[in-house]
Amino acid sequence: MVKNMSRIVKCGLIQAKADISTDLPVDEIKNYMMDKHVKLIGEAASKGVKILCLQELFNGPYFAAEQKPKWYDMAEPIPDGPTTEAMMELAEKHKMVLIVPIYEKEMSGVYYNTAAVIDADGTYLGKYRKTHIPHVLPGFFEKYYFRPGNFGYPVFETEYADVGVYICYDRHFPEGARALALNGAEIIFNPSATVAGLSEYLWKLEQPAHAVANGYFVGAINRVGHEAPWNIGEFYGTSYFCDPRGQIVAEGSRDLDEIVTADLDFDMIDEVRNIWQFFRDRRPEMYDDLLEL
Length: 293
Hints:
Blueprint: E1 8-15, H1 26-46, E2 51-53, H2 82-94, E3 97-107, E4 110-118, E5 124-129, E6 135-136, E7 140-141, E8 155-157, E9 162-165, H3 174-182, E10 187-192, H4 206-214, E11 217-222, E12 224-225, E13 235-236, E14 240-242, E15 248-251, E16 258-265, H5 267-275
Parallel strand pairs: 1-2, 2-3, 9-10, 10-11
Antiparallel strand pairs: 1-16, 3-4, 4-5, 6-7, 8-9, 11-14, 12-13, 14-15
């Protein structure tokens, strides 16, 4: 008789300050942030993390706080750019799945807010491009930098779990969260750059709600600190994991560089979905009007 093996996987989130002058050349900023995160990734590996997600635009400041052509130089190809290639090597070294959010250059003048997904053997699996692009004043000039994503809602079959990605502002839209579930995601990572104020009260409402409605795990990441010279607000950290019941099972601090980890039991997905039969009871034939409004 074959006994089913439990699918408990240690997952991690990195939240970190962009503690470097934005007056420096872009390459210096990227190199500094890369070196910082290489150390944090190594620390996560030493803790036994098997799936690790970095924060939105991890290798620089949240430059969409201003409209300045300088920041177009942050963009690079995926997967053929230096950051993705370096992360592929790290994934293979640590036997770790990596979700790597950076500024993507498809061609000159065509840029996306993107996350590359790399398997534990260093294989590049694909990318998710941020679908919903905000332009909210003050301090979120994203339409100046990013085209809306055009890859839909892919799910990546990694060695340890089936992973979906939603980036920052996407979390306010339930349609994509449901699409990721229907495409087979077991865990959704939402790398973000969000500040205290207008939407902070939603931080622990929306994503646990997505987890409950769709019966999967969510890892929500937010950077920390104030970023000069813009000082658009406090990036308040508090990155967390929640389970398919909507319970927060691990949470980071508000103001420290940190690796948030949790042992997630993916067998819980079947357990919860067999109780709350939301997929069985959906009525997609009744939802056509949603596509016309």
